[in-house]
Amino acid sequence: MELSVLVLVVSFVILLALSVPIAVSIGISTLLTMLVTIPFEPAIITVAQRMASGIDSFALLAIPFFVLSGMLMGRGGIAHRLIEFAKVLVGMLPGGLAIVNILACMFFGAISGSAAAATSAIGGFMIPIMNKEGYDKNFNTAVTVTAATTGLLIPPSNVLIVYSLASGGVSIAALFIAGYLPGILMGLGLAIVAGIISLVRKYPVGKREGFVVSIKKFLAAIPSLMLIVVVIGGIITGIFTATEASAIAVLYSFVLSVFIYKEVKLTELPEILLKSVETTAIVMLLIGTSTAMSWILSYENIPQSISAALIGMTDNKYVILLIINILLLIVGTFMDMTPAILIFTPIFLPVVTNLGITPLHFGIIMVMNLCIGLTTPPVGSVLFLGCGIGNTSIGKVIKPLMPLYAAMFVVLLLVTYFPWISEVLPKLFGY
User: Fold this and answer.
1) Domain locations in the chain?
2) CA dist 122 to 83, 97, 197, Å?
3) Backbone angles phi, psi at 176, to 5 degrees
4) Residue pLDDT, tens place only, 302-340
5) What average pLDDT does range 393-407 have in this prediction?
6) CA proximity to 178, closest of 409, 370, 368
7) Nearest to 225 by CA among 88, 422, 424
8) Which of 149, 135, 113, 155 lies closest to 408 in space, CA to CA?
9) Residues with Cβ < 8 Å from 104, sequence gap 6 or more?
10) Contact (Cβ atoms closer than 8 angstroms) between residue 416 and residue 409
11) Tell me: the pLDDT tens digits for 5-16?
12) Alpha helix locations (H) across 238-336?
């Protein structure tokens, strides 16, 4: 086992260092590990079989639909309507534009299910506006990239669907509902820190909108916000499943973007469909190769070894949870969310269930950890994207990110040690 683990870790790290795409790195390192114990041809066949079985899941049908829905929403003029609505709600507070940015990212991230889409759509609008009003551009970028991750907790969320698969069938509907309070708490924590920083730096405060203008902006945003109500409401009431809800989301997004807002032309649909297919293909390849790596880890009894090592270190539930959180935060700095969930869920889930943590609660803990990883170097995809949009560098953004990291970590600890935050809403709705 020691040789297999060494081959897996060393080959994976070397491939990542050579900037080989993460899915290819996972696939090659898995194959090399299998070659330690079995001949080439059976190894190739086994990897192919495990990849095929990894994506052979009905629940995964929701991912291409939610991806397409997010693409339509991103092109459909949703972002600026949500920003205007957020200004009505919080624009008059200290650091109003920073809090508007956070709230708009929460809205858009929840609607699109993509942190990258939220960073592009909201950051593309808000960062230039905040720059013009005298906010520091590095602070503006830091606020955007951290706030964009909240949409991965607030449903619909593709990563929660992936966790459902990796955990062996935790209800997607229950995971969706469980993400609301942690996602809102994360946004609230970021807003408090951003507000304090803005107050100390004396950033400008926005004016309060008149009643008539506020109503108009609210009405303009309602169709966009209704997507969340339709999708989650339909799942909770049992009208349709999470997979069926994804198809409903596409239909709703299509009608809203093409016929109501009229921001997407019919001639643009082939391009949107092609980009959706490309994104889905990348996600599915990640799922397939990660499933193969997860299988080889189980075959080598690595999850059992790690579980025994953790329990051997201490029998204190809170210390073990802290160690797992730290390990997941480290994983998030160099690995994308999808493979991280598929590979590390089978490793850590048995440990936490032995401690009395439910798979539902652990799913939210895991996603929160990996959300933070999206905003951290060296592989934080959302951080890189945000720096590109904000026309700045990672080195300059790290300092303003620190207090926002602190807020995210505090919320992570609250959610970790108070399961009620994750579990109260699912229990309320009978899950």
Assistant:
1) 2-428
2) 8, 12, 21
3) -60, -50
4) 777 777 777 777 778 889 899 999 988 888 877 788 888
5) 91
6) 368
7) 88
8) 149
9) 79, 82, 83, 86, 122, 125, 126
10) no
11) 788 888 888 988
12) 242-254, 269-299, 302-313, 317-334
